[in-house]
Each structure stands twice: as C-alpha cells, then as structure tokens.
Amino acid sequence: MIDPKDTECKNLVLSIKLMAKHLDGMADTFEIAEIKKMLNYILKAENIFVMGAGRSGLVGKAFAMRLMHLGFSVYVVGETTTPAVKKEDVVIGISGSGETRSIVDLGKIAKEIGSTLIAVTSNKDSTIVDISDNVVLIPGRIKDNGGGYLERHMRGDYRNLTPLGTSFEISSLVFFDAMIAELISIMGVSEDDLKSRHTTLE
Amino acid sequence: MIDPKDTECKNLVLSIKLMAKHLDGMADTFEIAEIKKMLNYILKAENIFVMGAGRSGLVGKAFAMRLMHLGFSVYVVGETTTPAVKKEDVVIGISGSGETRSIVDLGKIAKEIGSTLIAVTSNKDSTIVDISDNVVLIPGRIKDNGGGYLERHMRGDYRNLTPLGTSFEISSLVFFDAMIAELISIMGVSEDDLKSRHTTLE
Amino acid sequence: MIDPKDTECKNLVLSIKLMAKHLDGMADTFEIAEIKKMLNYILKAENIFVMGAGRSGLVGKAFAMRLMHLGFSVYVVGETTTPAVKKEDVVIGISGSGETRSIVDLGKIAKEIGSTLIAVTSNKDSTIVDISDNVVLIPGRIKDNGGGYLERHMRGDYRNLTPLGTSFEISSLVFFDAMIAELISIMGVSEDDLKSRHTTLE
Amino acid sequence: MIDPKDTECKNLVLSIKLMAKHLDGMADTFEIAEIKKMLNYILKAENIFVMGAGRSGLVGKAFAMRLMHLGFSVYVVGETTTPAVKKEDVVIGISGSGETRSIVDLGKIAKEIGSTLIAVTSNKDSTIVDISDNVVLIPGRIKDNGGGYLERHMRGDYRNLTPLGTSFEISSLVFFDAMIAELISIMGVSEDDLKSRHTTLE
C-alpha cells in the first residue's frame, strides 16, 4: 500500500486521457444504418423498456431518464410500476459481453412476446446479438476477448486503468447521451422542453 | 420532426467528439492536493456512504459498486440495508449545481453527526462546497452559470448537445472511475481481485 | 444469547396473533368518508405518485404496483422514469409519525404545485396531516406517543414484538391492499385483468 | 364503474377481516423445527442475502432492513453494493409459487457455490423447495392450486379480495416481522438497539 501523499495521481490522469481518446475514436466507428434503425424504433415505439445488469443497468437508467425528459413512455425493467411488455413495444438490452444471463433470458422472453429487441453490446459474436432485431456495437473491452482503442494502444496495464466493464459502461453512457442529442435535433425540441419534465420531487 | 432516415447523425457524432475533448481537458484541471485528500479519506474510512439525486445518484452507485469490488465497506444512501452514519465515516455528496436540496440537507446531517463530507460538484460557489471538508471540482456545465470546455468552444447549441446535467454526469463518472484506477495502483491490487468480489447473483 | 434450539418461538407466535387482532380491530376504525374521498381522488387522477421513506416506502411501492396492475398511471417518487408532478395529479405520502422530513418536504412541494396530497399516517397531530387534502389514519404505534390495539392490550413488552414502525407498516400494507379490493369491486374488473398487466420480464 | 360515493366500502372491510383471520390461523401452522433451523442459520451466517421478485422482493427488503437494525451483515440481491455470495453465507429466497424463474435460477447458483439456501414459499411441491436446505411454508394462496384459510372459507370471490400473490405477500411480511420479534428475544436486545442502527440519512 502506497501512502496517498506520495502518489502523483498519474494513473488517475492517464485513465481519463485514455477514455477521452477511446471515445474520440468511437465516434467514427458506428454503423450509421444501425443507429438510424434504432432511432426509428425508439420514435415509433408504443413503450420503451430498458434493461441491464450491474453498472450496465445504471447506464440504462440514465438513458431511460432522458427518454422520459423527451416525453417518451419509457420503463426500466425491474422497477416498481413497469408493466407487461407487448408486441408494439421496444426492449433495449445492454450487456458488454452480450452473454449476461438475466439479460439474455429476458431478451428471449421479449422476442417470444413479439416485441422489438435492440442490443447495445461490445461483442458481435454473442447470444444477445443473435436474437436482436437491431445491434449497436460499442468498442469497449470485453472480458476475455478484447477490441477497441485501449487494447490496441496499451501494453498490459490497461486492465487496471479500466477494470472489468469500465470502458464499455462509460462508452455506452456517452453513446446513449449522444442518441439523446440526435433525438433532440430530430424532434426539434430544446433543453427547456426536457427541463419541464424533470422531476420536481427530488 | 425529421424522418430518422434523413439524418446523418451529425449531432450524435459531434456530441461524442465534444465530450471526448471536454474529458481530455478535464484531466489537467484537477487540484491534485484535493484528490490526494479524497484518496486518504477513502482509504481511512470506517464506512463510505455515497449520495446523489437523479442521474448523479446513478453515477454515485457506479462508484460505490467499484469501491465494493475493491473491498471497501460502502453504502448507497437510500438503499435497503444502509446503516446509520457515524463520526468515523465518510459521506460523498454528488451534485452538479451544489444546491440539490436533498443532498445539501443530508450533507448538513452528516456534518452534525461529525462525519467527513466530500463534495463532487461543478459549482465552487455552492452550499455543498461551504459545508464540505474536501471538494473536487468537475468542469461540467452548471445550469445558469457555465464553465468548462463546451461553453468556451460552442456557440449556443451546446445546450442541446449535452442537455441539463449531461456534461457533469459523464465527467464525474469518468473522474470516479479514474479514482478507482488510482486506488488500484495505490493498494497494489489487480483486476482479478475486483472480479472475485463481483456479484455472483445477477 | 439464547440457543435457538431452546426457544419455543413464543414471541414469534405471539407477535402474529397480536398483529391479527390489531388488523381485525383496524377494519372498524376507518372514517369511511375519508376513504371514499381517497377512492375518488385515485379514480380521477391524471397520474398518481406514491412516496414514503424506509419500510413505509416499500409499502408504497407494493401499493403502486397493484395500481399499475389495475391500469392506473402511477409512479414511485425517486424511481428512474418518474416525471414532474402536475396540478391534475395526486400524491400519496406515507409516514407513520407524519413528520418524516423528506416526505413532509416533498408534500409541501406537491401542494405548491397545486396537486392533491393524501396522507396515510398514524399521527393525526402531524405536519403531513396539516398540509394534506385527505387523511387516512392507520391505528399503528407511533414512536413516542402511542395509540391502537397493541398499546391498550400489552404491558410494556409490545415494543419488542412490533419494534419501531412495524405495526404501522404492516397495517398500512393491509389497508392499501384492501383499497385494491375495493377498487376491483368499484371498477368491475377481475383478477385476470390484473394478471394481464403483471410484468412479463421478471 | 360504481361512483365511489355510492360504495359502503364493504370489500375493504371484508378483505381486512379475512386477512386478520388468515394470519391468526397461520400462527398455529408453522413447523417449529424448520423455524428454529432458520433462526440458527441466520444467527450463524457470515452474511445474509435476501431475494424475491416483485412484491415478494419488497417483503424481502423489509426483512433485510430489520436484520440490519439488529446488526446482521445483510444484503439485498440486486442492490448496488451487494458482494459475491460465499460458502459461509445464507441466501433467503422468497417466492409464493416457488417457481419464479429468476429466484429459482439464483437459488441454483447459491447452491452451486455451496451456501445455505432457505425457501419461504406457499408451495411445498415446488422447485425452490427441492433445492433448499430449509423451508418455511406460508399458508398463502398459490395461483392455481389453493390452500389456507381464505380458500376454505370463501366461495369464489376471494380472488378479488386478495388478488394474485396478495395473501402470500402480507403473510410472509408478518412472518418475517415475527422472526424479528423472536430474534430480539433470543439475542436479548431491545428496540433502542434497533433504533441506534436506523438510517440517519432519510
């Protein structure tokens, strides 16, 4: 254990710089046809359901909150007043590995019901991709099977700079917030419209 | 309303590029003495409590989860089994404006108990800063009183690219994950140590 | 510490018998005019918001879930996609003492907005009662200032049989579920209607 | 739809009276050997994990909160800082039908890890019972295969008085709170000990 007084916080600075570069590169990697398809599904959905486990679930909640601010009928899977999914609904599943058991299981149920399933994942060879109608690939690190900026540019220690799903989680949050920016433009609304739907009881 | 087929997703790409630049700049703005103080408080805390409202609360949960992976005794304010705060504990309050009512109220209670209060905020002239023992300033946009990269480089429409607290929320998530990278280095642990504490029931 | 092998579980049996008697007595204490008023507010609400702290919050969530099963537009204060409260909405605040700070504060905000506030509490001389449009009194034990069946019939040790807010929390859950039974009858729906709205993703 | 002004709230009163009788009868049905086994597992557990879906999950949270007030190291499955389950830990699964998919799946994982699994259910012929080390049967109504007081005494309309899992959920909450009363007696603690651990930040 190092005394925190003796650190110069190089790892802190380095991990932020790396994430910045990773995100800058990510903006150029998207398959725009898939993004347009996702925008279209969201705009036409009767209801939107968002799901993810662990930190991916938190990212999903952050997206769901902004969709609510935009006026969409949106629910987080697992919250108290989330109703039954129907055929006309869109379900967005977030999983870096694309293999998170609960998310894959719920994705299958969504498909059995006949609803639209959108996967946001880092792993194009995954079960969630196989069963989804629409896939957005996020260049985050996958647990055993890397890809993306960090892997190509770092030598070994990147694991400790963005441990576990960190890179995917930050990248997917930034992607979802960029989707919000795009939706604001498409829908012709402004920040004030969002503000008017922001919770007054917090 | 534009048909999503006719968009080229320029706002999506632009908002990601802007966030990447904002984060790259952020890494150079930290007051390292305050960061070291925060690292020291975390390492010596009996228990750590994290609190935030709305999307800042989600960012706090993402940080709390990683602190748990590192082996800290950490709780999210408002969750089921979160116990009473005591003098020996550290409370981390997250609020872009530094004026979120519930967070400021809880911060005051934490100070009355005698525990250590750490503020993570964009607003150095705020109530949360006034009552905190340790302050980390995040260069995010504040609602009525801007600052940071986006404001200096955009002309008006940045509001729609990173609406409401978006810039603060992403920036503080990246900052907290960078603190985890620094703690991993200070504590001499590895990604495998984190993995061993990752929930097995998800 | 007694060895659990040596207990006959008398306190377990006694506390259940006491709660059963308490509930049986409770059914006769309601002011039916206030209940009808509450039914009317719920049936006419644009949206219903439910709030409570700690275990009272859990009771509120259980009620909100059943209101969703009945087809109401209902939200839990503090959950991800809960929108802004408006004048046409009804806010239900649950607090045994009627003085829980966060609930009283949010109740005041709800009244400033012009929405209808309903209090479910054990304490008729409380702040939440003062500011509410409609009050349902639950004969549970209040922390320092008792009432209800248990107090009248036990001699001292009742505190340990239903510690803290236990009596209020169970009683209010049973009351809310009885409201659901009444709504089912008034609305002419059946259990199958509820089942059709029950989440499919769990 | 009946006008609420024209109701006499008979269903409200009837459903409370029925639940009171159901609970009074329940107190005599427990297999005390299984209850003692559960008390013993709880008292010796390194950590306790509580899990349930929907309203059963809320009941589990209410129990977990009181166990925390008693000083146990207790976690709710799915909350932010819940760590990995280990062999020395006890997992409590709550499911009226005993077949809730997510709970059964997680129960199997808990058994693979080697931890102790306790089932609280209404259905003795269920998967959760088959895989558990300890089973507490709650005389609640099961969806297609009834039992308990309400079924024996009502003629058909009981379904609408306690729809879906209502009877199980109330009964299991009352059972868990009775376990708390028993633990208070066994551990020789008092309400004041609980109060000292009650959250100060709410």
Helix-strand blueprint:
Four copies of one chain form a homotetramer.
Chain A: H1 10-26, H2 32-44, E1 48-52, H3 54-69, E2 74-76, E3 90-94, H4 101-113, E4 116-121, H5 127-131, E5 134-137, H6 148-153, H7 158-161, H8 166-187, H9 191-197
Parallel strand pairs in A: 1-2, 1-3, 3-4, 4-5
Helix pairs in contact in A: 1-8, 3-8
GO molecular function (chains A, B, C, D): carbohydrate derivative binding; isomerase activity
Domain SIS (chains A, B, C, D): 38-189
Organism (chains A, B, C, D): Methanosalsum natronophilum
How helix-rich are the residues of chain A, as a percent range?
40-55%
Strand content of chain A: 5-15%
Number of helices of chain A: 9
| CATH topological fold name of chain A | Rossmann fold
- What structural class should be given to the helix and strand makeup of chain A? alpha/beta
How would you explain this protein's 3D organization?
Chains A, B, C, D: Belongs to the SIS family. PHI subfamily. Chains A, B, C, D: Residues 38-189 form the SIS domain. Chains A, B, C, D: This is 6-phospho-3-hexuloisomerase. The structure is a homotetramer of 202-residue chains. Chain A has 202 residues and is α/β, with parallel strands linked by helices. Chain A contains 9 helices and 5 strands; from the N terminus they run ααβαββαβαβαααα. The N and C termini of chain A lie far apart (40 Å). Chain A has helices at 10-26, 32-44, 54-69, 101-113, 127-131, 148-153, 158-161, 166-187, 191-197, and strands spanning 48-52, 74-76, 90-94, 116-121, 134-137. In chain A, helix 3 (54-69) runs parallel beside helix 8 (166-187). Mean pLDDT of chain A is 91; it is low at 142-146. Chain A has a 5-stranded parallel beta sheet, sandwiched between helices. Chain A has a single domain (19-196), classed as Glucose-6-phosphate isomerase like protein, domain 1 (Rossmann fold). Chains in contact: A-B, A-C, A-D, B-C, B-D, C-D. At the A-B interface, helix 1, helix 2, helix 3, helix 7 and helix 8 of A face helix 1, helix 2, helix 3, helix 7 and helix 8 of B.
